[in-house]
Design brief:
By secondary structure, this protein is α+β, with helices and mostly antiparallel strands. About 25% of the residues lie in helices and about 35% in strands. A 7-stranded antiparallel β-sheet has the order 1-7-6-5-4-3-2. Strand 3 and strand 4 form a beta hairpin. The longest helix has 24 residues. The protein is globular and about 40 Å long.
């Protein structure tokens, strides 16, 4: 344990591990529910980018693939593009997919956060993104509004 803040989120989705894996790793699908294209070949050691889907080509997050075990486990580092070379400024996200009959349990753990402010930010971001992902997989479309734009309070 590093003593740094962490955030854990668990959700259950009517889907298969393979479809959920595809939704996490296919750039076109991530653009639909996240507003960003997650771009990589998803092999351990490979770079990945969280690129805005607005056509600007701007990557808001970059990192490396730490582990990739399709369709059950994906671990990546996360950093601001300007801090890519500073490993001490990277956080880490693990996606763990577990099937159970006709559903899957997705556990997202975001570790090594810089401070409680960063933990608070991801604590509002992950539920919005994962709710949109769940809606897309279960209904074929994301939520009608971007959930991360809902005002706090």
């Amino acid at each position: 344990m590093t003593g740094q803040p962490r955030f854990v989120y668990v959700t259950y989705i009517a889907s298969t591990p393979e479809k959920l894996w595809e939704a996490l790793t296919d750039a076109d699908l991530t653009a639909v529910y996240w507003g960003h294209r997650n771009v990589s070949d998803w092999r351990p050691g490979s770079r990945w980018e969280h690129v805005r889907a607005d056509g600007s080509g701007v990557a808001d997050v970059v990192g490396r693939v730490v582990e990739s075990e399709p369709p059950i486990r994906l671990v990546t580092t996360w950093a601001a593009p300007g801090e890519e070379g500073r490993a001490d400024r990277h956080s880490r996200v693990a996606f763990v997919i577990r099937p159970y009959e006709d559903i899957v349990r997705l556990t997202v753990t975001h570790d090594d956060l810089a401070d409680e402010g960063e933990r608070s930010a991801v604590a509002s971001g992950w539920p919005a993104v994962l709710s949109n992902l769940k809606s897309l997989l279960e209904t074929g479309r994301p939520l009608p509004q971007e959930p991360w734009r809902v005002p706090a309070g």
